[in-house]
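Field log, afternoon session.

UNIT: design team B
ACTIVITY: writing a sequence onto a fixed backbone
BACKBONE:
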């Protein structure tokens, strides 16, 4: 059976997943190249789930009353967007997503401010990144503004699930899966875009506290020419066992490395940042450059833009390896190290285990009891103030 796909089919697939292809060029056979908010149909749930006290909320557990879903086929294009009661999906056991990981997803949040208003943070940027991931898998693209409007309506309908308080939010999980019921490594002729929502508290149970990272020299998260810069489920499953091994050693997450020089790539599921005096004696905030192995994080981009606007130190997208970190630690040039991402916002780091060495990272020298460095705390507060509406910003959209 697999022979029927053959070399020509595989070559055809390699052409179809080129990220540079435009929506219209990739899916010119489709009758409808996107879905529209104006066509949105809503079916309200006849029952309401009980609200969980916010102190008991857990990231990724428990969902709202409704979900957004839109079907797509290669011959017919996009169907009608619908908000429907939250339900289980019905898929063929042969669905491509189950066998070849043809799926991608995003993570965004809705926040309730002190003024009672609900705000979304850079949701359209998440939709743009999702298009990049989806097109790489030869799955359909869509109009990012229209998708964001549909998700915004989902938040409006389920607004009672958006908890109050700093650190609490409604986590949004837009997802695209290949649904064709046929085996064989090939582009799928049908797909489903859907979004579910999870009321959540802080990502880490310990709260905003510094963590320990294990610089793993054996396992690799991503490589040049791979999919490290796309938000695919396949990028995350491979880290499950290495992360468990790191936890057995007493660390919270992995500091992912690549190459013979052990270049830093990402910290767990976060982008990595180091604040240090670099080898030229310059105060610098550095994060690994987007070389194809790094996910272009929305929080990462926000930090870079904020820090450059401050103009108080050099901000660099570059490279740094573990020998440089070890040497900088010995010379007292490291000021802070932290991870950044949508789920946690900022995760301060207090120690990195590397090649038998425990590299201790300073936190706040003026407050020995602090669990974060001054810069990480400042960035965290600045972003949170924007997300909760205390600081006006073009990055937020109010859900009326």
């Amino acid at each position: 059976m697999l022979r029927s796909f053959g070399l020509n089919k595989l070559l055809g697939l390699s052409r179809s997943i080129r990220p540079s292809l435009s929506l219209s060029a990739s899916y010119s056979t489709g009758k409808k190249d996107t879905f529209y908010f104006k066509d949105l149909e809503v079916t309200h749930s006849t029952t309401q789930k009980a609200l969980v006290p916010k102190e008991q909320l857990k990231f990724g557990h428990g969902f709202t009353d409704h979900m957004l879903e839109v079907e797509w086929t290669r011959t017919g294009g996009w169907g009608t967007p619908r908000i429907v009661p939250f339900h289980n999906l019905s898929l063929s056991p042969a669905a491509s997503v189950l066998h070849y990981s043809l799926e991608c997803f995003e993570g965004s949040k809705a926040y309730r401010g002190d003024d009672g208003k609900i705000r979304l943070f850079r949701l359209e940027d998440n939709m743009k990144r999702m298009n990049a991931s989806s097109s790489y898998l030869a799955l359909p693209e869509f109009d990012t503004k229209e998708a964001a409007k549909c998700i915004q309506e989902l938040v409006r309908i389920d607004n009672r699930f958006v908890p109050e308080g700093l650190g609490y939010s409604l986590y949004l999980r837009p997802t695209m899966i290949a649904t064709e019921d046929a085996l064989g490594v090939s582009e799928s002729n049908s797909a489903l875009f859907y979004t579910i929502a999870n009321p959540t508290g802080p990502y880490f149970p310990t709260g905003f506290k510094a963590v320990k990272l294990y610089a793993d020299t054996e396992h690799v998260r991503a490589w040049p020419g791979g999919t490290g810069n796309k938000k695919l489920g396949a990028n995350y499953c491979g880290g499950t066992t290495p992360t468990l091994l790191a936890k057995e050693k007493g660390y919270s997450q992995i500091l992912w490395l690549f190459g013979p020089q052990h270049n830093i790539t990402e910290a767990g599921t976060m982008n990595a940042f180091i604040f240090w005096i670099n080898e030229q004696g310059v105060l610098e905030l550095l994060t690994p450059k987007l070389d194809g192995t790094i996910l272009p994080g929305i929080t990462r981009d926000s930090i870079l833009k904020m820090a450059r606007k401050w103009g108080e130190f050099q901000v660099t997208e570059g490279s740094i390896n573990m020998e440089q970190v070890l040497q900088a630690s010995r010379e007292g040039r490291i000021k802070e190290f932290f991870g950044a991402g949508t789920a946690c916002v900022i995760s301060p780091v207090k120690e990195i285990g590397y090649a038998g060495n425990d590299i201790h990272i300073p936190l706040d020298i003026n407050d020995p009891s602090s669990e974060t460095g001054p810069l990480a705390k400042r960035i965290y507060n600045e972003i949170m103030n924007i997300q909760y509406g205390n600081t006006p910003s073009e990055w937020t959209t109010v859900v009326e």
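LOG NOTE: Residues 1-30 have pLDDT under 50 and may be disordered.
NEXT ACTIVITY: expression trials, pending approval
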